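New to this. Explain these tokens.
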Amino acid sequence: ILKFVEITVNLLVLICVGAAQASVAGFTSVGGLGIGSFNLNSAYSPFEGTELQEVRELDMQITQMRAPCVYGGVAFSLAAAALTLVFLVVGAKPIHRLKMGLLGGECAFNLLAGVGYIVAVGLYLHFVTQVNATEACKRRERLYARRGYTSMNCVVQGGDAAVGLFGVAAACLYFASFVVCILAIRTVRAFQRRMAKAQHSPKSSIRDRSVRNDRPIHRTSERSHNIQALATLV
């Protein structure tokens, strides 16, 4: 259950990273995906001449400054989701087929993923606030505000806040998986010790031999009884 939820949260982080970039990239930028009241190919645009050129350059500049956040967030969330899926598939085995090396690797991955998500969220919000504090962002905010577009401001957007929220949720899930993985290692070790004791115990070996020897006799008696019943019917 934790693995399925972790994969879902990773995908939500990926979606929020893309949505945050599209919402702040600007209407004249390719990164804005044409979302808004106008774009480069529209018939109507509130900006004209040098003002349009300035807005276009500022949109592109903001998009490039936020590129490390986008590429880093997409790469990290995809890698975490892929590795989680691998451990989910490989670890779906009965307890007697689980290997300690695999469980140890899964525990290490869960711990690193939890710590990595906390660091990644901190770096993401740090870069976002740095971009919002630049003069280019403030100048673009003033240009958009003149035409009544107040959404292009220099504050943390809802998409960026969602990235941070889902990132912290993913970190909590991976820490919970780390605890569950430690408990699984203890369970597998106890099971292996029990199996080893059962194999080396003389009573169990004698009991196993008697059971093996009784099975042919029981099967032979059943066969003879069936033959007698068949002969009676004939």
